Amino acid sequence: MLALWRGPPLADFTAGAFAQAEITRLEQLRAEVAEDRIEADLALGQHARVLSKLEAIVASQPLRERPYQQLTVALYRCGRQADALAVYQKARRALVDELGIEPASHCCDLSARSCGRTRHSSPATMAIRPCRDRDSRSRLETARTSPARR
Description:
single chain; Serine Threonine Protein Phosphatase 5, Tetratricopeptide repeat; flat
C-alpha cells in the first residue's frame, strides 16, 4: 500500500476547507501504515535497515511516540544503547515541553532496558509493545483540557 502512495493526499484540493479533514485523516492513516511496516521489519530482525527511515520520521513528526519507540528499539538491537537512551530522552523532552505529557510507561521500560537497569536487557530479546499514537492522542486531549495547562 505504501508503494502506491505518491505525494500529499488530495493535493489539488488543499486550498479547499472542505478537504482538510480528509487530508488529515489520510495523512494519519499513511503514518500508521508506515509505522506498522517498520514494526514488521523490526519483528523480522531488520533493525539496521529501518534506522534511517525512523530517524527521518522522528525528525519530521517529533510528537509521535511510536516512531521514537521503534527507533529506540532498533538502535538498542543494533548494539547502540547510548544512542537508544538519547532518543528516549529527546522524545521525553519533546513530549513534556510541547504537550505537557510524559511518554507512555512502556516507553520508559524501554529506556530502563537501554540503560541496562533490567536483567532482561539482551538486544535480541527486547520486545516491542505497540506504542500506538491513539494512546498519545487521548493523553494529549487530557493535557490540553487540563486546568493546569491553561
